[in-house]
Specification:
Blueprint: H1 2-46, H2 49-54, H3 65-72, H4 76-98, H5 104-123, H6 137-145, H7 148-156, H8 158-173
Length: 176
């Protein structure tokens, strides 16, 4: 009985250590490989950016420096996860239905990359040493108060979001 308990605990510890190292390797690859995804995001967005900026009739920013500071904080992975969820659940689906048909494939590409990024951020929460939650309430409230202009503002600021995500991931890359 003692031997089987010891054997079970040994296998359990090995499994946990193996899972942790496999996850760490996955997260390393994710962070190291993100520049290619970022390049694809920027290239794709450049094809639709003028449309959204031309239709953005408000001076209020959705993504300001406080968001970048949240990304750089100990709760950065929560901030990124919440922002990505906001874009995936609210902004991009609305953009896909309201955009000219020729922009729909580009919006789909951005959605796909954001979806994968969100999954990786969640999977790598321990890797990023994530702390307390981030609050998205101010952004969602401002977005809703802008009505239709909120869509154009949020889509027009995607390049700024790409920069924030890049800064966050670069900061995690240099911690080795």
């Amino acid at each position: 009985m003692l031997f089987s308990t010891f054997t079970f605990l040994s296998f359990f510890i090995i499994a946990v250590v193996f899972d942790s190292s496999a996850n760490c390797i996955h997260c390393d690859k994710f962070v190291e490989g993100f520049p290619a995804k970022l390049k694809e995001l920027r290239k794709t967005f450049s094809r639709i950016k003028n449309y959204y900026e031309a239709n953005d009739n408000t001076d209020t920013a959705l993504l300001d420096d406080t968001i970048l500071q949240d990304f750089k904080s100990p709760s950065g992975c929560h901030a990124m996860n919440d922002i990505l969820r906001f874009y995936l659940d609210t902004v991009l689906p609305t953009a896909a239905t309201k955009a000219p048909r020729l922009h729909t494939p580009d919006i789909s590409i951005i959605s796909g990359i954001f979806s994968g990024l969100k999954k990786d951020v969640i999977a790598c929460k321990k890797y990023f040493s994530c702390k307390k939650p981030f609050s998205l309430e101010i952004i969602t409230s401002t977005y809703k108060n802008m009505n239709v202009d909120g869509l154009y503002k949020a889509m027009g600021e995607l390049d700024l979001l790409f920069n924030y995500i890049e800064e966050y991931l670069v900061s995690k890359r240099s911690r080795k």
